[in-house]
Inverse folding.
């Protein structure tokens, strides 16, 4: 799995039409500049799927992101084994790990809570 973090090929990514625009537009046509951003917050919600999660984490951390960012993985009631692996990876790699089981007793999925916490 490969994630593109370079902003050079924005024509590959499109904004969907809405009531303001009538057709798909390449993101490269946007006028904002990423370099003016103070910080972005990248979040990854997780429940098990540990191998895909570890690939995602590696892709984010090895990306050539041009603006300051913080990266948080939200563990949404993964198994004890997956939680342990995530904790070890967070300690080695330096991303923030939030175990939702320490915040709520509400069972997964907790997407709204993740967005509110982020």
């Amino acid at each position: 799995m490969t994630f593109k973090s370079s902003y050079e090929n924005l024509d590959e990514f499109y904004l969907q039409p809405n009531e303001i625009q009538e057709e798909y537009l390449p993101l490269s046509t946007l006028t904002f500049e990423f370099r003016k951003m103070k910080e972005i917050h990248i979040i990854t919600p997780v429940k098990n799927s540990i191998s895909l999660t570890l690939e995602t984490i590696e892709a984010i951390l090895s990306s050539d992101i041009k603006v300051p960012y913080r990266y948080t993985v939200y563990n949404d009631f993964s198994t004890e084994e997956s939680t342990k692996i995530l904790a070890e990876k967070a300690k080695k790699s330096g991303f923030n790990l939030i175990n939702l089981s320490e915040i709520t007793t509400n069972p997964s999925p907790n997407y709204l809570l993740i967005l509110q916490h982020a």
In short: The helical segments are 50-61, 80-93, 111-117.
